Amino acid sequence: MTAVMLTTMILCFALTISVAVSIGLASVLGIQANNAHMLISVKEMFNAINKFPLAAIPFSFWPAT
Description:
The chain is an all-alpha fold. The chain has one domain. Helices cover 69% and strands 0% of the residues. It contains four helices and no strands. The protein is flat, with a radius of gyration of 16 Å. The relative contact order is 0.11.
């Protein structure tokens, strides 16, 4: 899985595709190479980022004006 993801990232960077798209495409291809169920993988990824402390981190750097 790691080899597929790294190869995809290097290929995307060589084709001057943006970093966000490269990471997304590499992660989808890595999940497919691992034969994981896509719906469960997407659900787990969403549950991992759906946390309040992660949403509060950017506001700690907001300048007090």
